[in-house]
Amino acid sequence: MSGESALTGFFGLVWRILEGIRKVLHLVLLLVIFGFILAALHTSIPTVPRSAALVIAPEGELVEELSSDPVRRAFGEASGGPAPETLLRDVIDAIQAAKTDSRIKLIVLDLGNLSVSGLSKLQEIGAAIREFRAAGKRVVAAADSLDQTQYYLASQAGEVYLDPLGLVYIDGFSYYRMFFKDAIDKLGVDVNVFRAGTFKSYTDQFSRSDMAPSEREESSVWLDALWSAYSQDVTRARSLPATALKDYVADQPAALAAVNGDAAKLALQRGLVTALKSRRQLADELKGLVGEDEDTHSFNSISMSQYLAAIRAKHVLQAKPDSKVGIVVAAGEIFDGHQPPGAIGGESTADLLRQARYDTAVKAVILRVDSPGGSMFASEQILREVQALRKAGKPVIVSMSTYAASGGYYISAAANQIYASPTTLTGSIGVFSVVPTFQRTLDKLGVKVDGIGTTPLAGEMRIDRPLSAAVRQILQSSVDHAYAEFLRRVGEGRKKTVEDVDKIAQGRVWAGIDAQRIGLVDHLGGLKDATDAVARLAGLGSDYQVQYIEPELNLREQLLMQLRSEALSLGRMAGLIAPRSDLDRALDPLLEQARAIAKLNDPRGLYAYCWCLEPRSPLKRIAGR
Hints:
Layout (H helix, E strand, L loop, with lengths): L1 H40 L10 E5 L4 E3 L6 H9 L6 E3 H12 L4 E6 L9 H16 L3 E6 L4 H9 L2 E4 L18 H7 L2 E7 L7 H4 L5 H25 L6 H15 L4 H7 L5 E2 L2 H12 L10 E3 H14 L6 E8 L2 E2 L8 E2 H13 L3 E10 L1 E3 H16 L4 E10 L1 H4 L6 E4 L4 E3 L3 E7 L1 H6 L24 H26 L3 H7 L4 E3 H6 L5 E2 L2 H11 L7 E4 L6 H19 L8 H18 L7 E3 L16
Parallel strand pairs: 1-4, 1-9, 2-3, 4-5, 5-6, 6-8, 10-13, 10-21, 11-12, 13-15, 15-16, 15-17, 16-20
Antiparallel strand pairs: 7-18, 14-22, 17-19
Helix pairs in contact: 1-21, 2-21, 3-4, 3-12, 4-5, 13-14, 17-18
């Protein structure tokens, strides 16, 4: 009995020690969180130095809207969750403000953490950089290495400095995707596809083992348009021959061997960079222009986030005009119901448009679309709100970003005018429905399904039974009707006959420059062009304010947003947040599509969706970088 008591006492002691440690750790965690809260609540507005360089260092992908809600982003990023993102408008706002700010002497582009992003977004930033340079100010790009996305922005700078051990990697645009038919056949799954549109290729991944000739034909057209625009913008900015990039890519194996594998030397020889310098060498030179920071012993600088905080705080204190142009962002796939930021909800996005309609200060609206589409029912809800805005006397202009295809075009069709970038991917006017059944899979396992129903259709839509001819006819009729409605909506909005729309529809994807030629787009231009145009339509003159109409953050969400950057910094310093691997980045497009497919929730199973996500490199990082 005494032995048992001793054993019980020993484990009791161990338990009390562990419980004490738990309480101490819990207290420490609470103190850390409390410290963050105090820091966030007492954050002062950053001060812009009297002479400084504005450092623009975008992280992750350039987006129109940060994905997920603030709470999930705060905790997700702190645990190494979603990939970082940078708001496109933040970059442009910072550049435009710095253009007339006498304290900002130059911009330094640090592009090492920028991920593959839509060319149309890069072009908008490039235009802002050129305006900054036209104001007589320097723009310098400093890089260890540059991939294709990063080099586009670097090329727009007046000076591009590459590390002597770096490289500029450009390989052009490509469009590859996975086809699952053979795997599906091995699993014994029947994926029943119903679609309308010769070029509506989204469902080919389930029904084919390779790219269809029609998809290969249309894809080559918009890929060539993107590559042509990229090459033209870069060669003009760097004053290079028109074929410089084409030659750089084609000659690279032999040319690199000729310089003994020195990729930096090759980039310099071909005029892609201004000079080979390390970051430290450049920093020492810039000290003479803007002075030295006594704490870092580098040049005086201010980050983009600090600069935006300073100028926006000043803007808040200024009197606001009574006339506003409201901007509603529709970014991501289109789903039914209410969706978090980074996705488009039929109800949530319609609510924002409705808010703009009832706000008497909002005189006109920009619908900024960056979407490959999704639920047709949700798209219809949004389109109806666009129509209601126009009926209320408020003009609506759609500004298309990287893509506004399928459902993304559907929600655009009712606008007064449509603006797009020459490299926007749009169109893809078509509809599909996909119904998988697993009876063959079950049969392989020896599972049989049998029974009776009260009508010919009872039990015919079960996923464990093959689709009957009657159900197939119903589904195809529904798709055909949905396609006819899509054509009608586009015809009404674009003032075309259904027959004329059908000729340029059929699910075909168009680059913005071709979309304007065939009448799917009115004008080529960016968000600023569209904003100026809608202000003119509303007769606002120059005295108006641009306001993004977004879901309001409650106090808890605002606090978490303030805490996020501090928590991230602490987590990285402590080694608690691991950097995302190349494999993570490579799998991103596949995982994004898997998540999108899993979330498709149209009540009738009808989708206007385009597999036209802008082509991205499967592995962004280059070995040895």
